[in-house]
Model the fold of this input.
Amino acid sequence: MPRWLIIVLSVLYILSPLDLVPDVIPVIGWLDDVGALGLIVSALSGPEESSAAEESSAD
Done:
């Protein structure tokens, strides 16, 4: 899955009023949002993905 898609979907999930676990439940309700933030951080800090075009031009 492309990195930009993970970031966009995670941000949309955080901003959405609908959650897997409602935010009105203290602490537990915020854990799914923290998980989405974790996806964003891991996508931003991971190694760059190279495309097939870049790999073929490097040869």
User: Anything to note?
Assistant: The two ends are 25 Å apart (CA to CA). The mean pLDDT is 81. The helical segments are 3-15, 28-45, 52-58. The longest helix spans residues 28-45.
